[in-house]
Amino acid sequence: MLDHVEIVAPTPKTIAGAKEDWELVIGMEIHAQVASKAKLFSGASTQFGNEPNSNVSFIDAAMPGMLPVINEKCVELAVKTGLGLKADINLFSAFDRKNYFYPDLPQGYQISQLYHPIVGEGEVIVDLEPGIARKVRIERIHLEQDAGKSIHDMDPNATFVDLNRTGVALMEIVSRPDIRGPEEAAAYVLKLRQILRYLGTCDGNMQNGNLRADVNVSVCRPGQYEKFQATGDFSHLGTRCEIKNMNSTRFIQQAIDYEARRQIAIIEDGGTVDQETRLYDTVKGETRSMRSKEEAHDYRYFPCPDLLPLEIEQEWVDEIARALPELPDEKKARFINDFSLSEYDAGVLTAETENADFFEKAAAGTDGKLAANWVINELFGRLKKDDKDITDSPVSPEFIGQIVKLIKADTISGKIAKDVFEISYTSGRAPEEIVETEGMKQVTDTGAIEAALDEIIAANPAQVEKAKENPKLAGWFVGQVMKATGGKANPKAVNQLVAQKLKN
Ligand code: ADP
Ligand code: MG
């Protein structure tokens, strides 16, 4: 299925500026907000941007005596995500309490799944460049509650709290330390995000914090990662630091780069890296310590006594599997095969399902490659100029299809097609109708073209002589004919006639 990509071995990223050779090892924990309408254990809304503390039920506020009830939709979306990542689905999973005390966590604990996550091992194929990809293994996905938000900058003397997010379902997607450089880390996040958006299990909105990453970084000497791979023994790797809560792929790359250099400098100076949790300061471009291993929370995990283990049926999993949409890798492979698209074009068109759907409608019953050119070069270019999204394109896919068909039928030239497109884009009129009403049909009638050319030849005897000496000057006559016919003459026919008439 994925024979258009070659899955390559890890490409270690050596660090410039270091005295010795070092390699980077990165593993990520991604928190993806489940795209459910209600929270994980309560019926309160998950709507972003509502009035603070308006999406809070008694359960979210941890009123005494309240009991959590699992939201089936969240379980379904977690299973769907697991299937989309080709992962094992655990029919038995269970919830644990992770205890810590923080003002935005009214319960005093987060309900999570430490010992028995709902999803086991899976994979993400990370595209590095056209045709080249890497496989990053997923270790597990578990369901857990999000916390609320403390607001420190509204009042000099008080901290406010917004519990709207409290109890919203998150999927924590944990990767193996298979990522080997900053660019790969960014590509991994983007690919995972793309898959989640295709599945409709998370909207992937990083700005709103609906997808955020904890990035674990360590450095090691060449050869160590291979030993780790062969044995699974983490002691072959360097000590890792975890950079918390990143929600931009650009900052993820910068943070990894900084962190790798920091760790290398410590080791090359004869020191050792402390395992700790760090934060990335986007203004200074540095990571700084948040807490060390010694200060790490003791979460005192234990099975949540309020919830039964979660047991699901294989039949239900199969049903979800049958309803799975076509995923990015498969769609891309199909576009390459069925429409003879380049890897690059197929990648652009499958970046978002909206783009892919638009393209497929435009290409229906006509030349897919030409339709792809029109969607990518003309339409996307024009939309970008207006800062518009494909979903509010004034030109429908059917209209792009009409333009492509008109070109293929030699009814209009590629050049006139651009004018037709512009008229359609600004007026919303159908290209077929525009060509008909505005008399934009290509003149293929050689009689009409010949008449125009004869007139030009008669009026320009000196040019004719020159062109007969130097065939390169024939282009001038082609241009004149095009001008005389309002650009409607079939360029092929014009070229042929000009060549014939100016023969020495
Ligand atoms: P925790 O839950 O305490 O954060 P885990 O063992 O679950 O610890 O690991 C969390 C993440 O750290 C995983 O993505 C894992 O791949 C990654 N990781 C573990 N060891 C290393 C290492 N030496 N270098 C980089 N990443 C690592
Ligand atoms: Mg962690």
Q: Which terms summarize this structure?
A:
504 residues, alpha+beta, Arc Repressor Mutant, subunit A, 3 domains, nine-stranded mixed beta sheet, three-stranded antiparallel beta sheet, 16 helices, 39% helix, binds adenosine-5'-diphosphate, binds magnesium ion
The whole-number mean of residue pLDDT values reads 94
Largest sheet at a glance? 9 strands, mixed
Estimate the helix proportion, in percent: 25-40%
Q: How far is the N terminus from the C terminus?
A: 57 Å
Spatial extent as radius of gyration: 30 Å
- List the domain count as a whole number: 3
Strand content: 15-25%
Provide a descriptive summary of the structure in words.
This protein has helices spanning 72-84, 182-199, 224-231, 249-268, 314-322, 328-339, 343-350, 353-363, 368-385, 397-408, 414-427, 431-437, 446-459, 461-469, 474-484, 491-501, and strands at 6-7, 23-33, 92-93, 96-99, 109-112, 122-129, 132-145, 149-151, 160-162, 169-175, 211-220, 241-246, 276-281, 286-292, 302-303, 310-311. With 504 residues, it is of the alpha+beta class. It has 3 domains: 6-321, no CATH class; 326-437, no CATH class; 446-503, Arc Repressor Mutant, subunit A (Orthogonal Bundle), CATH 1.10.10.410. Strands 1, 2, 6, 7, 10, 11, 12, 13 and 14 form a 9-stranded mixed sheet that branches. Strands 5-4-15 form a 3-stranded antiparallel sheet, with no helix packed on it. α2 (182-199) packs antiparallel against α4 and α15 (474-484) crosses α16. The mean pLDDT is 94.
